[in-house]
Amino acid sequence: MSNQYSLEVHGAGREIGRSCFVLNAENERILMDYGVKFQPGMPSEYPTLVEGKIDANILSHAHMDHSGFWPELYVKQNAPSYMTSPTQDLSKMLWMDALKIADQDGKEHAFSPNEVLRAEKSVHAMQYNRPLDITPNARLEFVDAGHIAGAAMVKLNVKEKTFVYSGDFMLPPTRLHNGADIKSLGKVDYLLMESTYGNRMHPDREKVEKDFMQKINDTIDNGGHAVVAAFAVGRTQEILDVMFDHGVNAPVFLDGMSRKATEIYHQYPQFNSKPKTVRRMLEQLNMVRHPGHRKAALKEPSVIVTTAGMIEGGPVMHYLNHLHADERSSLLMTGFQVPGTKGRKLLETGKIELEVGEVAPKMSIQRFDFSAHSGRDSLLKTIKVLSPEQLILIHGDKQISTDFNDELKAQGYNVSNPRNGRHRSAVDVMDYWGNSFPSCPSVQPLESGSLYSQIFFIHYGFKVG
């Protein structure tokens, strides 16, 4: 291995959001992910400035904290891009929808639809487990990350060393995915791994599903409507499979951008474990395509699966405005609620701002943990199985990633959790911290409600502002 080998952390260092990393090896520079970070009430944040020529761009998956700033990257770095086909289509869907929202709200564009289309032309769509030489010295292979359709763990072989970037990954199998295929990675020298849930394990999934279905059935039996708030990409499809498997004695409606996302899932049967079930979803669901369909969804007891997952806008607000005073109905949240969002406030205070003002809904409110990220036990198992020479923790809350880092270091692992704006330098084995490289200026923040505060939340299926 050349003595010139380093990792630049331009985002997701001791934080979650704006993931961006640059691997420097053999005089080549390979960029991985280019996302956006949004915190309600604060300016959007983007990766620190990536300077110098990039030889290849790699996108691990479509979620906007990893892909949200990608079109802007193409404007600056006209390098070939590598991702799976579902990631390409899901990302394009999210980018174009964000631009549409910006037009509707009179917001400034950070990039144009033509630039999205031009960026798309640079994409080389890849399958899992099919290595490809992307530079004279680097070979890329995607491995199923088990997170959402098309999500990949990134394996890079540079000369005699192997570098793996986990992206977001889920080790145990879930409803539509077989779980991260870590055994296909083989020997790993350097592992760049998410630490989102380094502090806790997820509850038993079977029990979560049982409680979820019990709540839906109780709501229907009481003559109410079960409003299921779910992220458009990944979570919606998982939730629908739970309901199809258990059975629901009421019509099921699908509203919001989840419709298009589910159609993309159907287009790529090789990227989910139940293609026939996904096809059945499209055939049997009641698709909400115009206001008249929303009226129909409220005529009799029903289940309504809709965006947004964090109750921050989108079709879910229509249903809450109509049902908040109905004690027979319920709101089922199926994902993490970021601090500052309406969903988080509703859970913590029991109140939400609707068309009539701030109200305390009489409908039942409950959250269910359907996470698609590996829990603490799975992270530890991954480290044990891969046994990397060097472990680098990213994509985790500052305190959680720091505590996890200290714990692993006490167990004898060669581990670090770098901040943004530092790089990990190495002489052959990456065994020491280099000095901080010159501070990279951040992209100038836009106001909350701008295109990129919206584009991050499109990840969760709704707009802001």
Automatic annotation (TrEMBL):
Keyword match Cytoplasm: no
Pfam family, any one: Beta-Casp
Instruction: Output the InterPro entries linked to this UniProt entry.
Output: Beta_Casp (IPR022712), MBL (IPR050698), Metallo-B-lactamas (IPR001279), RibonucZ/Hydroxyglut_hydro (IPR036866), RMMBL (IPR011108)
Q: In what residue span(s) does the Metallo-beta-lactamase domain sit?
A: 17-225
What domain of life? Archaea
Question: Which key words tag this protein in UniProt?
Answer: Hydrolase
Is Metal-binding among this UniProt entry's keywords?
no
What positions does the domain Beta-Casp occupy?
A: 236-346
| Single GO term (MF) | RNA endonuclease activity
Q: Which PANTHER family match?
A: CLEAVAGE AND POLYADENYLATION SPECIFICITY FACTOR FAMILY MEMBER, MRNA 3-END PROCESSING FACTOR
**What is the protein's given name?**
MBL fold metallo-hydrolase
Question: Species lineage, top-down?
Answer: Archaea, Candidatus Iainarchaeota, Candidatus Iainarchaeia, Candidatus Iainarchaeales, Candidatus Iainarchaeaceae
